[in-house]
Design a protein that fits this description.
This protein is an alpha/beta fold. The chain is 31% helix and 25% strand. The chain has a single domain, classed as 3-Layer(aba) Sandwich (Aminopeptidase). Helix 1 (20-28) packs across helix 6 (186-203), helix 2 runs parallel beside helix 4 and helix 3 (119-128) packs across helix 6 (186-203). The structure holds pyroglutamic acid.
């Protein structure tokens, strides 16, 4: 049996009809990519709930790797997140709540974790396939950061398990409602995540078979 990679995506939020992160996660659900079987999980857009959801999924499935996905409307490229912070601000009507101090996500846990993914190798693979991509130094302080932080915290004693997060732009149909915003087709985002998982599978030691197979 193939080892699992848990891939999380989020429900739509902020008045959107879809969230590209869930569209991509569910499209890949059940697919085996370089020896890693994708288990897609849909997460709620709420920092505390999503942290619990991700932690439960990791305990339940004991995956060989973890990859969180989220929507970052307004960004033009696939963003490979480097850092998750132990702090959250839930949103107020779609805006970051600026009224109060941000709160700690997990009491007594470290201030931050770095992604445990081969980010440079993923970036290189995406650029080789002409997919706009960049490394990002902030996953924000909302549910996406919470999912990434919770995963890295849950896996802190399993350092061999690669774990990290990728933010996706709006898809083209979402951007039709705001023509000034950058967007990317769901098809390209799906290819990007498939490539990322293929690279991650190398980091998870999942070689298992010759790597000459074309992925896309
Ligand atoms: N994006 C938000 C939360 C859920 C999502 O898809 C974020 O960037 O935190």
């Amino acid at each position: 049996m193939a080892s699992l990679i848990v891939v999380t995506g989020f429900e739509p939020f902020g008045g959107e009809r879809i969230n590209p992160s869930w569209e991509v996660a569910r499209a890949l659900d059940g697919e085996i990519i370089e020896g890693l079987a994708v288990k897609a999980i849909r997460a709620p857009v709420n920092c505390v709930k999503t942290a619990a959801h991700v932690t439960d999924a990791i305990e339940r499935f004991r995956p060989r790797a973890f990859l969180g996905l989220g929507q970052a409307g307004g960004r033009a490229a696939i963003s490979l997140e480097r850092v998750a912070i132990n702090l959250f601000q839930d949103r107020n009507g779609g805006q970051l709540d600026t009224r109060g101090d941000a709160r700690t996500l997990i009491d007594g846990a470290p201030d931050a974790y770095f992604a445990r993914l081969p980010l440079a190798a993923v970036l290189k693979a995406l650029r080789r396939h002409r997919i706009p991509a960049t490394i990002s130094l902030s996953a924000g302080a909302y549910a996406c950061n919470a999912a990434m932080y919770a995963a890295l915290h849950a896996l802190r004693r399993r350092p061999a398990v690669p774990a990290g997060f990728i933010h996706l732009p709006y898809d083209a149909a979402q951007a039709a409602r705001r023509p000034a915003s950058p967007s990317m087709s769901l098809e390209m985002m799906e290819r990007a995540v498939r490539l990322a998982i293929a690279v991650i599978s190398g980091a998870a030691g999942e070689t298992g078979r010759p790597r000459r197979r074309r992925l896309i």
